[in-house]
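Entry 14: structure prediction run for GDSL esterase/lipase. Input pasted below.
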Amino acid sequence: MTFAFGGAGVFKVKTKKVPTLAAQVQAFKRLVNDGVISTHQLHHSVALIAISGNDYMSDSDFETGFYTSFDDLDTYIGNVATEILDNVAQLQMLGVRKVLVNNLHPIGCTPLHTSSNNYTTCDLLGNYGASVHNKYLKQMLDERDNVHILDLYTAFTDIVNHAPGGGSDQSKDFKGKLSPCCESTDEGGFCGERSHSGKRLYDLCENPDKTFYWDQTHPTHAGWEAVMMALQQPLMEFLDEDYIA
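Run finished. Output tokens:
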């Protein structure tokens, strides 16, 4: 079952009427309390908390708040991680035996951030923010049993932003690593947009299977397949055969 909403974050995103992470967990809790989800089902279930950075995007508290120092930013990021931890604890108290939490991918490598330099290099500040988030997340979740962090940051970096001569085997499969396959032809537009007359206002790459990012923020299907190849082995070790049988 999914309780996720596109565009949601740990905290409220002002321009999007979507429930926060806590509200999504409460929706799950109501089904458990009402008996729709049984104790037996809980004991053989895996929960995934997928927070992908909306708390750090435009219209979030991070973007609209007034911060006077790096300490203020550090505190905000710590609050995001703490809220994730609290919701992991809620799920475990309800009886979910194993919980997955993804860390943040290198946000500075998304086309949204690389477009300013013609898709040639990643934005260091964006990646730094993701690293701070991931540091807090690891410190907090390492103290809990039966929680596994899906390391998106390393999986993405090994494909799109590795050192010369390094990277994963899958990295060689992609020609376009920092540029999108689908790009708006109108400044301020978006992938898939059309004019009132139906004219397409975006360009598509010739081979999406060789491009890592689909649009300004999301990987292509091929991109996600490559990421999952990196995540699969540690994930299966966490979800041992006796558990998933």
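Notes: The longest strand covers residues 98-102. Will compare against the previous run tomorrow.
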